Amino acid sequence: MTFQEIIKLHPRPASLDRDAVLRCIDECLDCAASCTSCADADLAESDVQEMARCIRLCLDCADACDATGRIVTRQTEPDLRVIGAVVKACSAACLACAEECERHAAHHEHCRVCAEVCRRCKQACDDLFAKIG
Amino acid sequence: MTFQEIIKLHPRPASLDRDAVLRCIDECLDCAASCTSCADADLAESDVQEMARCIRLCLDCADACDATGRIVTRQTEPDLRVIGAVVKACSAACLACAEECERHAAHHEHCRVCAEVCRRCKQACDDLFAKIG
Amino acid sequence: MTFQEIIKLHPRPASLDRDAVLRCIDECLDCAASCTSCADADLAESDVQEMARCIRLCLDCADACDATGRIVTRQTEPDLRVIGAVVKACSAACLACAEECERHAAHHEHCRVCAEVCRRCKQACDDLFAKIG
Amino acid sequence: MTFQEIIKLHPRPASLDRDAVLRCIDECLDCAASCTSCADADLAESDVQEMARCIRLCLDCADACDATGRIVTRQTEPDLRVIGAVVKACSAACLACAEECERHAAHHEHCRVCAEVCRRCKQACDDLFAKIG
User: Fold this and answer.
1) What is the CA radius of gyration of chain B?
2) Is residue B7 within 8 Å of B21, Cβ to Cβ?
3) Which residues of D13-40 are buried (b: 16+ CB within 10 A; e: fewer)?
């Protein structure tokens, strides 16, 4: 996506590993949209009553990924305590959502795919966290 | 991005033109991230005083694109009046941001690229609006 | 809420009617939180299958109100075309959500209260729109 | 605000201490709006160059508070690991923003007030975290 070019054109040198940052933003955008779509698909399923936990955790995960994607995108005057805590919280939200989506993966294809996206986003958050130390 | 697969796995048939919807979501995600990054780059420029309007319109555009991306993603029980008004507002936010970024395109490369993303997102919103009628 | 004090301490004179702005922000915050909570309450109801449209419109309304509250809060270098289009879209989202919540008001008290908040927020958006002209 | 009534009308009993939850949501809404407004006021100040870190941390804090307010509002099928990590991250964002705003409190009244709101929101997040324990 084009936003990556803009990040590379920032006037100040990056204080964080750029590849880890770009991958984290990318996964957060994809995961936020995937969870918004999976919650919406759950809502249209005939077994929606059994999908309440999945919908709730997808909504939480979308909110966490949105905020994390925005915060990690900013390169001016970063506070590493904040970024570290935020990617850690996002990782927790992705894990909980992935685990719940996996429980429905056999009967809802959208949950199977969503779980994969959540797992990738969790990994990208964990990798960025490791770079922050 | 993977979220497009999830949208295609939705249990109910789409009520809107799917290609127009997918393109609108894609552009909204890219534009939201681009505007968040451009506002942040502006903030680190030595002429930040002259960039106040650009920062403000980038922040507005990011907020409008975020909300629009989420709302357009949902396929269950859509209300076309809501979707129409939302993509129209997003188009207005993209246009204002593009015009301001273009004023700085010669001296700030990130503004030049951001203006292009905003123009593309405006077009995608206008195209979806035209399909809603 | 304290944020109103901060808005009044802004270094530049407001370009929009301040009372209309403050009321619009206040209602957007309350409506976003009310719709987030109503969607969540719907999800825990035994008739959740019948609440799909209500959940979807509550989620849309929360997203629209969040973006609108942020955009209307900003006083530096406003673009009135953007603000006008955004409050108009928010008004449409509030109306659709109010109408749907009203259909469930007799059996779900949270929908009855949520509809009232949506109606008030719609009015605040319409009033601000009228001031922009 | 009226959203508190809706939270109390939720069909399932709360799993978390209700007073701590309501206070956390209230402070998150106020803090998100305060930080959005403070960043915007900073942008209009004649010493905006010195306010870059304050603007950035206010934007981060607004994003963290928005996501936290939404996640804490939901009562259906909560995951306490997610909620705990999210309020902890929000507390870190509030602390960093409060400390930076305090540095400008003597010359920018809006920063003085914003720092107070951030301190209160941090406390409300910490108190809720303690209840989750």
Assistant:
1) 15
2) yes
3) eeebeeebbbbbbbbbbbbbbbbbbbbb
The answer to whether the beta carbons of residues C62 and D26 sit under 8 Å apart is: no
As a whole number of angstroms, the distance between CA C94 and CA C100 comes to: 10
Rounded Cα–Cα distance for residues A60 and A38 (Å): 12
pLDDT block averages, 10 residues each, chain A of length 133 = 96 90 98 98 97 98 98 97 98 98 98 98 98 88
Q: How far is CA B122 from CA A16, B15, B110, in A?
A: 32, 22, 18
Burial of A105-118, coded b for 16+ CB within 10 Å and e otherwise, reads eeebbbbbbbbbbb
Asked if A93 and D86 come within 8 Å (Cβ–Cβ), the reply is yes
Inform me whether the C-beta atom of residue C76 falls under 8 Å from chain D C-beta atoms: yes
> Is-contact B28 B65, C-beta < 8 A?
yes
Most D CBs within 10 Å, among A15, A42, A53, A71, to test the D interface: A71
Could D1 and C33 be called an inter-chain contact, meaning their C-beta atoms sit closer than 8 Å?
Answer: yes
Chains in touch with C (3+ beta-carbon pairs under 8 Å) read A, B, D
Rounded CA separation A84/A82 (Å): 5
Q: Could you tell me the end-to-end alpha-carbon distance of chain B, in angstroms, rounded to an integer?
A: 28
Chains that touch A (3 or more CB pairs under 8 A): B, C, D
Q: In Å, how far is C55's CA from the nearest CA of chain A?
A: 8
What are B54-76's pLDDT values in tens digits?
999 999 999 999 999 999 999 99
